[in-house]
Structures are given as C-alpha cells and as structure tokens.
Specification:
Elements: E1 4-13, E2 18-24, E3 39-43, E4 49-53, E5 64-69, H1 77-82, E6 89-92, E7 107-113, H2 117-129, E8 134-140, H3 149-155, E9 160-164, H4 168-179, E10 186-191, H5 194-204, E11 213-216, E12 232-236, E13 239-243, H6 249-255, E14 273-278, E15 281-282, H7 290-295, E16 298-300, E17 305-306, E18 310-315
Helix pairs in contact: 4-5
Length: 316
C-alpha cells in the first residue's frame, strides 16, 4: 500500500502515557476528510509500521490526528512515536475503515476503555455535528488517565457517561444497566483492551442482535506453530499456487508477482482481505466480523489458511 509523506504539526500530552499527534502535508495542502472510525498505518522513525485510529474531526480536511499510548513492553513503535518533535516527518497510509457507523441504526452506543477512546472520539465528533442519536460510555481508572475527557465534557456532556474507577468486576453490571433500556434499532461500538471488548460484546449480545455489535481490534491473534499447518493450493486468476506449511498465502502470491497489498502481516489491519470464490477458509485474523467469517466469502490472506485442500480467490 502506497504511503504518503506528512509532517508533525502539533503534539499534545493528553495523559502521562498518551500523546496525540497532529499531521499535515508538508506543502500545506489538505489531507482530506475521512469516514468516522477510520484508522491509518503509521511508519514511525524506526521503520516499524503500526495501525492507529484517527481521533480528529472527520469532516476537517486540513489535518489528521491520532493518539498513541507508550507501552511498557514496546518493541520500538510507541516509544519512538513518543520521542517525535514538531517538524518531524512520517509516512502514513490513506485512511480506511474496519469500524464504521451503521447507516440503518436509530441510536448508537459507543463504549471505550483506555486508549480505545480514539476511534470513539472521531465517531462521537461526527455524530454530534450531524445530529445523530448517540451516547458514549468511557471507562478509565482515573480522570488523569482518561485521554480527551475535558474535550468530551466540553463538547457533548449530555451524551457522555464517564465511568471512572469502576473495577473490572463491576464493569459487567454497569454495562448491563446501560444496555437495558436501549431503543430498538440500536447499534453498539467498542474499542479497548481485549478482555474489556469481550465483556462488552457478551453483555451487548443480551440486548441487541449480534450484527449490531461492532468492534475494532489492533491486537494480533496468537498463531499456531507452522508444524500444525498443512500445505494446500490457491487459485488466483486462473493460476494455481502451492502454499507450503511454513508460508502464508500472501507470501506465496507476492513471491509470484501477484499484486496483493499488505501492511500489518498479523491479521489486524484488513489490507490483505481477498474474496473467496471456492473453498472453506480457516480464519485466524482479528479483523473480520463474525458474520464475515461465517459467510466464508472473504479472508485475510496474511494469516488465515484453509479447511479444504484448495481455495479459489479473487481480489476484493
């Protein structure tokens, strides 16, 4: 996927561990608008590429902003981004959406924990400006650790429900109470730590249909050892390729000159999704929804494999 050059125009220390970084084009031309809930690939100073949700105003074309939490066990990505200064240059992808606003929803419930507030912030900003019915539930351990809380209190205080200091054991009770009186046609969106999102999905499932629950997950699923894999065939545009146990579909296709875009190589960004025309995918990604996986019509070819001896694929 082609990356574009940008310059860091502003940096804000949102919490002791979270910084928001504003980006502009070096020539001052507009970066463009994006759909709320979108994310970008960011190639940092150490050439490590990671995915970050945009948290700026989607309708504002001048700049993009994303927030990054410095992780204690960072492999270099978040630590390097926290060392950026205004004027530094980065490369980013065009925005793309794995999480988006359901157009048929009558009401929207946004649920965030920790750094998971970033995609919810762009969605809340859009919904507020466009007069969509929504509420935002924000869980954080302390006010000091709740990024963008002052902004939310200022812009949409009547839509904000800040759950500060709620213990993990009490989260389910709080969520259940919040979901009990939801109107028909409500959709739920969530982002945060894996365990938290699992809890939101489980509780929301008691109150809304499964296809009305949406989440964003940038954590890679643990992959089996290659010794547990079997070889199989993939057909693309009339050509057949052997996929050995120790290589992914996308590796083999790219080695043979096929034009398949990739980014994360971990099944979390959605760049490499392809159509499945024949065969039964074995999904190992954290990007497709449950409904998409059950349909068997698409797959993330950077990590997923097959339950059948052969797959017939096409570009998405």
């Amino acid at each position: 996927m082609a990356l574009i050059d940008v310059i860091v125009s502003d940096i804000t220390q949102e919490t002791p561990t979270i910084k928001s970084i504003r980006l502009e084009k070096p020539d001052g031309s507009p970066l463009g608008t994006y759909l709320p809930g979108a994310h970008i690939d960011v190639e940092g100073p150490t050439a490590i590429t990671r995915q970050y949700s945009l948290c700026s105003t989607p309708d504002s074309a001048d700049s993009f902003a994303f927030a990054v939490k410095r992780e204690a066990n960072s492999r270099g990505g978040s630590a390097a981004l926290h060392e950026l200064a205004v004027g530094d240059r980065l490369r980013i992808s065009e925005p793309r959406n794995l999480l988006g606003i359901a157009t048929d929803a009558r009401h929207h419930v946004l649920v965030a924990a920790g750094i998971g507030i970033t995609p919810m912030l762009s969605m809340a900003r859009y919904m507020d400006v466009h007069d969509l019915s929504f509420e935002l539930h924000y869980f954080a351990r302390t006010e000091a650790e709740a990024a963008f809380l002052p902004l939310l209190n200022d812009r949409c205080p009547e839509k904000l429900h800040a759950h500060i200091g709620v213990s993990r054991d009490s989260q389910e009770q709080v969520l259940d109470a919040a979901f009990t009186t939801l109107p028909a046609g409500t959709h739920v969106y969530t982002c945060g730590p894996d365990g938290f999102m699992d809890k939101v999905v489980a509780v929301a499932g008691r109150h809304v249909p499964p296809d009305a629950v949406h989440l964003e997950n940038f954590h890679a699923a643990e992959q089996p050892d290659a010794s547990e894999n079997a070889a199989f065939e993939v057909e693309l545009e009339g050509e057949t390729y052997e996929i050995p146990a120790d290589k992914s579909i996308v590796e083999v296709l790219q080695e043979n000159g096929c034009d398949v875009d990739t980014s994360c190589q971990e099944g979390i960004c959605g760049t490499c999704i392809m159509q499945v025309l024949e065969g039964s995918p074995e999904h190992r990604d954290n990007v497709l929804t449950k409904a998409e996986k059950e349909s068997g019509e698409v797959m993330a070819v950077c990590v997923s494999r097959t339950k059948s001896p052969r797959l017939v694929l096409d570009y998405y």
